[in-house]
Amino acid sequence: MMAWLFGLLQLAVLVALIVWVVRALRPGIGPGGDDPQSLRRVVLYGGLLISVVAVAVGLSRLLLATLPQDLIVGERTDELALGVALTAVFVPAGLLLWRAVRRGLRADASERGTPAWALYVVLATVGSLLVAVVNAVWFGDLLVGIGDLTAEPAAVALVALVVWSAHVWLSRHPTLAPTSELSRLTMIAGSAIGLVTSAIGLGGLLQVGLEALYDVAVPAALLTRDAELLGHSAVLVVIGAPVWSWYWWRQARHGPADTLWLAYVLLIGVLGGLATAVTAAGYGLWTTLTWWLGDPEAATAATHFTALVPALAAATVGLGAWWLHRHALDTLDSGTRTEPERAYDHLAAGVGLVTAAGGVTITVAAALETLVSGATAGTGLSARELLLLALTLLLVGAPVWWHFWYRVQRYVRAAPAAEVGSPSRRVYLVLLFGATGLTAVISLAVIAFVLLRDLLQGDLELAVLTQLRVAIGLVVTAGTLSGYHLAVQREDRSLAPLTPELEHVREVLLVSPDGHSLATAVATETGARVRSLHRLDTPHLDVDPHLIGEAVRSVHHRRVLVTIDDDGQVHVTPYEPQ
């Protein structure tokens, strides 16, 4: 139980270190600046977060102390002592801090727009949600017979749910809710937690159902369905699906397509779903090829192909997640090709390329292994099975890469200026060229080291190729990919030369009488990072974000200041921080 106290102590030390580092690295802090306010927020909100965690731990211990002894792991006196100590100390401290926080929020409306307040609400809400989900799943497993029944996960989940509910109420309060864009991170993180939890559970349920169908279709398989898998998967779906529905389906799905929204859709939904489907499909294809062309361990086809059942379940769930979130991108109403669409195409092409590149690397390694010894490659797989694995990766990855890359290149030929200058394409090419080039260089260094070592020791033989088979495969694959993407970058520069005058706006400082809501719309319109200052000397104006977007795009500079006159006129001024 003392681990909770040590965890709280570590968190307090971390907050103190943050304050100290900020003061040490920013010597300009003085009584007349904004930095003391920032430090006050760190201490105030950090202390409140520590108090909330401590009170939650204390209440869960007190709740456990009231239950029968056979439902508790440990001594009742330990639970009672820890619960009383934490609540007695941190409840008064938390109430005092909350009183100060509430007074500050109501006295100054701009305090609600600070990132510090939004970060506190996000950490408290997402943290309590994650604790509640993990412990609820744990307790659900206990209820369906997985492990010995104990009340601890139920008590922790119940208290965490109360903390989560309180902060959900706080995030919707008309005078206390944070207004910073950072507060949207709660919906995105909650959507991700719900999606991953429910997807794993749905995959398990689907696997059990497919095993039952496989039993009927192939009676000789004699599958033994795992009752624990069925129960655990059902628990995951029952808990994860409502979380995902609450955060994504009811809230985030209808929100603005800002950076956080796109990060969830593209990285968690689209990329995660597509990568899962490709991996599962590759495993299923390799299982099939191994039976027909390799050396299967199973005596009968019915037993061998039981491995297809979990692969099919994973592929189905992955494709479902991909389709749902790909459809969310389609709902972005735009008459032209948007940056999220470009990001989607490049991410999908990257998944296929990495998969196919693995196939090329394994092909080279297996060929070298066969050339030298023809034995196993130290992985438990014969050279033939390695070649089948390589063929599988190529058959799965190459079509995916070709489909999406051909589509990207077709858009480049149709509108080179827009496509070549897009951030998605630049990041894609730079990352691939850099990552593959670095991989090739490191692999070359490894090859040189091994060859020189054996040469100096007088042990240089042909068998050294067995040790270097992976490094040589990486050099061939990564070197080829690096050279290809370098050539693509050069071709892009010839199609649409980039000049400093055509630099895209990356940061917007917006000064307006409607800072927060207008800033969100401008961020969506321009794709730039928008910071807003709320003007108090100008009445509210309805300004079209599209007009601001056009004005910002007309200025080719990294940072711009946007101001709005009393009559609604938009002024854009480039600037550089000093």
Brief description of this entry?
This protein folds into 3 domains: 1-25 and 34-173, no CATH class; 260-495, no CATH class; 501-574, no CATH class.
Break the fold down into its secondary structure elements and pairings.
Elements: H1 2-25, H2 35-65, H3 76-107, H4 115-143, H5 152-172, H6 185-217, H7 227-249, H8 259-293, H9 301-304, H10 308-330, H11 339-372, H12 383-414, H13 416-420, H14 423-457, H15 464-467, H16 469-495, E1 507-512, H17 515-526, E2 529-534, H18 545-553, E3 559-564, E4 570-574
Parallel strand pairs: 1-2, 1-3
Antiparallel strand pairs: 3-4
Helix pairs in contact: 1-2, 2-3, 2-4, 2-5, 4-5, 4-6, 4-7, 6-7, 6-8, 6-10, 8-10, 8-11, 8-12, 11-12, 11-14, 11-16, 14-16, 17-18
General description of the model:
The chain is mainly alpha-helical. It folds into 3 domains: 1-25 and 34-173, no CATH class; 260-495, no CATH class; 501-574, no CATH class. It is built from 18 helices and 4 strands. The chain has helices at residues 2-25, 35-65, 76-107, 115-143, 152-172, 185-217, 227-249, 259-293, 301-304, 308-330, 339-372, 383-414, 416-420, 423-457, 464-467, 469-495, 515-526, 545-553; strands at 507-512, 529-534, 559-564, 570-574. A 4-stranded mixed sheet has the order 2-1-3-4, covered by helices on one side. Helix 17 (515-526) links the parallel strand 1 and strand 2 (529-534). Helix 2 (35-65) runs parallel beside helix 4 (115-143), helix 8 packs antiparallel against helix 10 (308-330) and helix 11 runs parallel beside helix 14. It is globular and about 80 Å long. 36% of the residues are buried. The model is unreliable at 1-8, 14-35, 375-379 and 498-502 (pLDDT under 50).
